[in-house]
Write a structure and sequence with these properties.
By secondary structure, the protein is an alpha+beta fold. Helices cover about 30% and strands about 40% of the residues. It is built from three helices and six strands. It is globular, with a radius of gyration of 15 Å. It starts with a helix and ends with a helix.
């Protein structure tokens, strides 16, 4: 979970539009699309964590975690640095696991919505 959060934080601060998590037989690759260029992230987790990370992203995106043979799409919101981001998630089955792509979009109302969301969460949960 920490790796996913750290990767999203780096992607947002790098102004990446997409984050690609790609499993391979011997390694796991994380790439960012920044200004139309596809760049590999400097740190990638071990391939053994591929299934656990894929499942975690599917839970966040409210996808069916049992389905690994068909592509799936979903979405979720993320509050980071007082800004609200809308994330689109797409999974694609591959030979060595599931490729997951996250599309990062700044919510149209930007920082104002983040503040409203924070107050709503605080009012109901804290």
């Amino acid at each position: 979970m920490q790796f996913i959060n750290q990767t999203l934080h780096i992607a947002i601060h790098s102004r990446a539009s997409d984050v690609h998590f790609e499993p391979y037989q011997q390694h796991f690759r994380v790439c960012l699309r920044i200004d139309g260029r596809f760049l590999q992230a400097s740190a990638s987790p071990s391939p053994e964590l591929s299934t656990r990370m894929s499942t975690r992203r599917k839970i966040i995106g409210q996808l069916d975690i049992a389905e690994r043979r068909l592509p799936q799409d979903g979405q979720f919101s993320l509050l980071l640095d007082n800004a609200c981001y809308s994330m689109r998630i797409a999974t694609l089955p591959t030979l060595h696991g599931e490729k997951v792509v996250l599309r990062i979009l700044l919510h149209p109302s930007g920082r104002g919505l983040a503040r409203q969301l924070w107050h709503a969460i605080r009012r109901h949960w804290l």
